[in-house]
Design goal:
The protein is 36% helix and 23% strand. It has 9 helices and 9 strands. By secondary structure, the protein is α/β, with parallel strands linked by helices.
């Protein structure tokens, strides 16, 4: 089934530099059939967006700031999101912002059965992050872009450290889905981690996938098993070391 996504971008709140990487990331989760960005395009700070929008077929929505101190962009984006929801043309939403004002919108869309992906900077407040099914930090996409460039290298300091809190989260999640022998299918572990903590992503810690991240932690065992149904594809299982 082709998952149709509405991508709504808060132009006042997100840097334009990595839109290409952002759209490539969104494509992993579905087909972005609606792509809109909101902002006051008469303001000079939004000039950088113009070429990027053409290259990525994103529709700019003009929203004047009618009142000083009030964010008209947020209101326009929220109204559009509800119109799209009731049109029943999409299966999910991608809300691109670091603004906690969209917390209630994300909650409302999920109440309506929509899958909600959030994308924003690491400064994004927790309430908006946990209101989404999945939350992706734009800094991850920046780091991936650096790694693919020969001119720049990604420093370890660009990534989060694997703390005891993170290890405990993984360990408890393995226990939650493990069989009687303590082994848990890694796919189930990853899914439950995402539900427990929407911003959990192995790329935050410098690993492209969950398997090498868990393999780097001495607290866990990993086992590769033959998959009877899919031939060459192995099934990865993990358990906590005693």
């Amino acid at each position: 089934m082709d998952v149709k996504l509405a991508v709504l971008i808060d132009g006042d709140n997100i840097p334009s530099a990595y839109v290409k990487e952002m759209m490539e990331e969104i494509a992993k989760y579905g087909n972005p059939t609606i792509k809109r960005i909101y902002g006051d395009w008469t303001k000079p700070h939004l000039v950088k967006w113009k070429n990027v929008l053409l290259e990525n077929a994103v529709t700019p929505i003009q929203q004047y700031g009618y009142t000083q101190g009030k964010n008209a962009t947020d209101s326009a984006m929220i109204i559009d999101a509800m119109d799209i929801l009731y049109s029943q043309k999409v299966d999910g939403f991608c809300l691109v912002s670091s603004d906690s004002d969209f917390t209630r919108l994300a909650t409302r869309l999920r109440e309506a059965g929509m899958n909600v992906i959030g994308i924003g900077e690491k400064k994004t407040p927790d309430p908006f992050i946990v209101a989404c099914d999945r939350f992706i930090y734009i800094e991850i996409l920046k780091n991936e872009s650096k790694e693919s460039s020969k001119e720049k290298t990604t420093k370890k300091s660009d990534y989060d450290k694997i703390t005891n809190k993170v290890i405990k989260l993984i360990a408890s999640t393995i226990s939650d889905v493990a069989d009687d022998d303590g082994w848990a299918f890694l796919g189930d572990v990853g899914s439950l981690l995402q539900k427990k903590q929407p911003n959990f992503d192995s790329r935050n810690y410098g690993f492209q996938k969950l398997t090498p991240m868990i393999n780097s932690i001495d607290k866990f065992e990993i086992e590769s098993r033959e998959n009877q149904g899919r031939g060459k594809y192995k099934l990865i299982y993990v358990r906590n070391k005693e």
